[in-house]
Design goal:
- The longest helix has 23 residues, at 276-298.
- This protein has 13 helices and nine strands.
- By secondary structure, it is an alpha/beta fold.
- It has one domain (6-324): TIM Barrel.
- The protein has helices at 24-33, 49-63, 86-99, 110-113, 131-139, 165-170, 185-198, 207-210, 216-225, 237-241, 245-254, 276-298, 310-324; strands at 12-19, 35-40, 68-72, 104-107, 143-146, 204-206, 229-232, 259-260, 266-267.
- Helices cover 42% and strands 12% of the residues.
- Helix 2 (49-63) links the parallel strand 2 (35-40) and strand 3.
- Strands 8-7-6-5-4-3-2-1-9 form a nine-stranded parallel sheet.
């Protein structure tokens, strides 16, 4: 099935994951699968993200650079009073993180959907308060990973068919259906697109198919419009396959240098603190997930796969990550 086995791609880069794999078995798994992981930091409004994620991810990348890299983040704008030192403090923090080996910076969905200014207005990604930070990243040739907005299901009823409705059933704080106090999906995408237009040299990766998972044509229109934009498929595999094999294959062939493989697998608990049985079950599930996704992209029609050419498989599973995250 396919021209290459998963391990023969060597190494595969998972360009979007949250994996605190600090146990000897963690490294054995990555060696077995020949994987390198880009651990992505998520900055919460509470300000606990550095201790919870950034520092552990930095340490993993420093100890095992052949298996781990890390992406930093920064505190969203203050949600109460204006802070004249905000941008200076953020840029200084980013400079320290890049010196510490971070290869990219992430903006999470709380920018646009949670952080507000003193007047209660939602702070969008194109807000003037963020412009100096975006310019710093652009001028420094740093990649920006953006999780702006949510799947379209976020704004749809819970009974609407979607791979994401259980998430919103279990996380109602992020479900926007019927809410008039929140930005729309269209407004969030427009703000992100304005950043791409204003900063044409800012290399941006749109997480989760750029939050346009519902329509590959919408993804394609952004890739056509903005040469500085790519997307990863993390946490959107089910959305991708729902578009049908012919459509997905054409999309992947057309934009073979703009799409990155990632899983968005989340296990932030240090693996050294897990019971051995839990760790082994976790790693078996990870193996199966990687093999199943690869089988879809590499497998032939008999096995309900896309039968992508070897060069496209290598771009999807490794080379595009290296291009869009040069530090890899």
């Amino acid at each position: 099935m396919g021209k290459l086995h998963f391990q023969e791609l060597g190494p595969v880069i998972d360009a979007h994951i949250h994996f605190a794999g600090d146990h000897a078995q963690s490294l054995e798994l990555l060696d077995e699968l020949d994987l390198k992981l880009l651990n992505v930091t998520v900055a919460d409004l509470a300000g606990t993200w550095r201790e919870r994620e950034a520092e552990p991810y930095r340490e993993l990348a420093q100890r095992w650079p052949h298996r781990y890299a890390w992406c930093t983040s920064f505190d969203p704008p203050a949600t109460t009073d204006e802070d004249p030192e905000y941008t200076r403090r953020v840029i200084e923090g980013l400079e320290d993180d890049f010196r510490g080996g971070a290869i990219a910076c992430k903006i999470w969905k709380n920018v646009g959907m949670e952080a507000t200014d003193a007047n209660g207005r939602h702070i969008m990604v194109d807000d003037p308060v963020l412009e100096p930070i975006l310019s710093y990243l652009e001028d420094g040739n740093h990649t920006l990973l953006t999780h702006i907005g949510e799947p379209l299901a976020c704004w749809q009823p819970l009974d609407h068919p979607s791979p994401h409705r259980e998430y919103y059933r279990n996380n109602p704080q992020w479900h926007m259906y019927g809410r008039t106090d929140m930005p729309s999906h269209e407004q969030l995408m427009a703000a992100r697109d304005r950043v791409l237009a204003r900063h044409p040299k800012l290399r941006m990766v749109g997480a989760h198919l750029g939050s346009l998972e519902y329509d590959l044509g919408e993804v394609a229109s952004r890739l056509d419009a903005y040469e500085n934009f790519a997307v990863d498929i993390s946490a959107r595999f089910a959305d991708l396959v729902s578009h049908g094999s012919e459509r997905v294959r054409d999309f992947l062939l057309t934009y073979s240098d703009r799409i990155l493989f990632g899983t968005d697998f989340v296990e932030r608990e240090p693996h050294s603190e897990m019971p051995g049985a839990k760790r082994e079950q976790l790693y078996e599930r990870i193996r199966n997930d990687y093999f199943a996704q690869y089988a879809y992209f590499a497998g032939d029609e008999v096995h309900r796969g896309l039968d992508l050419p070897e060069d496209v498989l290598r771009r999807l599973f490794r080379e595009n990550a290296r291009s869009w995250y040069p530090g890899l």
